Amino acid sequence: MTHRPPEDHLRPVRPHPDGAPWDRAPEPADVDPAVLGALLLRHGWQRRGGAAGRYGRWTPPGPGAAGTSLLVPVSRAFPDSDDLLGEALDALARSAAPSAREVLVSLAVPSDEVRWWRDVPGGPAGTASWTAEERLRAAARRTLLAAALATRARAGYHGARHRRTAAALLEGVLVGPATGDRALTAFVPVATGRALAVRLHQSLCAAREAVDYRRATGGMDAFDSAVGAGVSRELTEALVALVQGTEGARVAVAWAPAAGVPEDCAASGEPVEFSPGDLPALREAGARYLREEPAVPVRITGTVVRLRRSGPRGEGSVRLRVLAGAEVPHVRLTLDEDGYRTAGQAHLAGLPVRVRGRLESRGGFRRVTAASDVEAVQVDEAERDRLMKSLQETAGTAAFLEETCEGD
Questions:
Q1: How far, CA to CA in Å, does 386 sit from each of 39, 235, 305, 382, 389?
Q2: Extents of the domains making up the chain
Q3: Does residue 281 sit in helix, strand or coil?
Q4: Strand pairing of 272-274 and 249-254?
Q5: Which top CATH class is 296-401?
Q6: Which contacts qualify for 9-15: CB closer than 8 Å, 24 or more apart?
Q7: Residue 86 CB partners (closer than 8 Å, separation 6+)
Q8: d(CA 202, CA 195)
Q9: Beta bridge partners of 360
Q10: 330: helix, coil or strand?
Q11: Model confidence, pTM
């Protein structure tokens, strides 16, 4: 193991997620009738009578619904409740209604639902533009990633920071089929992603309020305070991508009925709307966040994956794969002659180096400036062998050897 001072902390290892039963229908015994009824109502099903206090008859939304119906018990107080639930689940599994699949997914794993809508002209016979559908999916993913980044840290501009852990938070999210180029739904499991859904909801509301303030007063102060709610350049860019080329766009977060409404969040699930008129304010805020995010003092430990300089002497550039000290995968830095020699010797010995400096926001927090105090970090033999093998496989030791070897 690497011997590190107490102030150095490696990133926590993310545990392997438990297998979620997305691929099988829920069992009747695991379904709460009240939750099923709430999901049917959310997805547009209509209750059309039924024995009062015993069960309700539900029909799906849209044309052709008259021939399909579900009998859903209002509780488990009656002996035939499990039978009715089983029949309702079977009918949902066989139903051609798009909403039926969404109800089954939310029953299988309690999930908060995130929905995006884009108001765009439709093609002939309800067809969708290929590129418009791709833009919808890309913008939706960017909004989720911006919220995931905000769960890691509150910053006006994240750049390359926290990208791996934020992307890992999206791994459990299931995305339903897009409704052409106009609508898309994501299911965020409560067990692993409730913080993501909460941060998305709060940041969208804060962004809406900040845009309104900017358009009403001309001031950008609201965007500064909105950072605390999770608004960032990444979110404003995602919203620009969502709204651009449309007559308007909306995003809504609906909480899982089985888990209830989180604290300090609205229960209604009303969509947050953005229009083309909001684009100038969103673009201005994104540029402001990029410009004003400060550099961060760091003490980074990393393995050398590339060294380069123009001659046999003097300073040179170094690329490190970060092990500790910053939430970025790689950084570049320029070292003086002594620091460059230390980095080269550590690389040949299979040792990490530790260096102080400032992680600059320019370039996405991928560069360390004012680098100093370069030193090799001693590790035991097993750790050194592992690092050497990793470097040979992923970092391209050949790139180091191709440097001007006559230098040192």
A1: 50, 38, 14, 6, 5
A2: 22-108, 109-293, 296-401
A3: helix
A4: antiparallel
A5: mainly beta
A6: 9/324, 10/323, 10/324, 11/165, 11/324, 11/327, 14/165, 14/168
A7: 28
A8: 11
A9: 367
A10: strand
A11: 0.79
